[in-house]
Amino acid sequence: MKNIYKLITVIIFTFLSVGSVFAADITADELVYDSQTKTVSATGNVVINDGESTITGASGKYDFNDKTAILSGGVNYTKNQDTLSCETLYIYSDKTINGKGNVELDFKSENIFLSGDEISYNQNTGIGQINGNGYFKSQDGIIRAPQIEGHLKDVLITASGGVEITAYTQNVHATGNELIYTKSGTYGTDGKLVLKGNAVATQNGNRFEGPELVFKEEEKVIETNGRSTMTIDL
Q1: Domain end call among 138, 172, 195
Q2: Do 4 and 47 lie in a common domain?
Q3: CA distance 64 to 193
Q4: Quick one: 124 and 16 in the same domain?
Q5: Are 92 and 71 contacting, i.e. CB atoms less than 8 angstroms apart?
Q6: Where are the beta strands (DSSP E) in 93-167?
Q7: C-alpha count within 13 angstroms, C-beta hemisphere, residue 196
Q8: If we measure between CA atoms, which residue out of 50, 52, 49, 45 comes closest to residue 31?
Q9: C-alpha to C-alpha distance for 191 and 96, rounded to whole angstroms
Q10: Which Pfam families has this protein been placed in (predicted)?
Q11: Would you say 195 and 165 are in contact if contact means Cβ atoms under 8 Å apart?
């Protein structure tokens, strides 16, 4: 679970790379500038390249008034090994990016993959969100939930709507209504994961049930709060 916070790091990486890309080369089958609305529309085989990263899509539009951009139609972003794909990508002047429609982020350099119906992140606030079919996978495990939110600056991750967790290193599989993950800074070792509401976890044949289960990374223990049941495989 120690790399759960990197869920948001992936989205930051994407924004920093994409946010300034419109100063780079833009090619398309058709480019139209509207001097009245101060917008540029690109249609057909749109390619944006800044020398380090590339974004492609079927169409795109950039508004010089509010400095926002939209790319749509099988959008793909590539930088070195890392990729982003979605149906539509929005980039806003307040440093928010928003991907919609089968969004996938494959951060191969960090061995992290996440996906969802919609993913957004704001660099100023440090808040990111996955809405719909949220999925996060790292070398440590997998989190599935309808909604996953994170605050990178405070290292606070929440998931709700029915959560499923698989932790490889601790050999734990768990489910619950909601999840809260906290950590004292990016490199802290005191990570704590709290699973609330009908929480059930299995580890090495042992089963834990209760209204709340607490996983502590440093101590490598599972604690139960409230009236709980523990079944031990002898």
Answers
A1: 138
A2: yes
A3: 44
A4: yes
A5: no
A6: 96-107, 112-122, 127-137, 141-151, 156-167
A7: 10
A8: 45
A9: 27
A10: LptD_N (PF03968)
A11: yes
Q: 170 and 129 in one domain? A: no
Q: Tell me the whole-structure pTM to 2 decimals.
A: 0.79
Side chain identity at residue 61, one-letter code: K
Query: pLDDT truncated to tens, each residue of the chain (234 aa)?
Result: 333 333 333 333 333 344 444 455 778 999 898 999 988 899 999 988 777 778 899 999 888 888 888 999 999 988 888 888 999 999 888 878 899 999 998 878 777 788 999 998 886 787 889 999 999 887 778 889 999 988 766 678 899 999 999 987 678 899 999 999 887 755 666 778 899 999 999 988 888 899 999 888 777 677 877 654 545 544
Q: By the 8 A CB rule, do 15 and 55 touch?
A: no
Residues 86 and 181 in one domain: no
Distance CA 136, CA 103 (A): 12
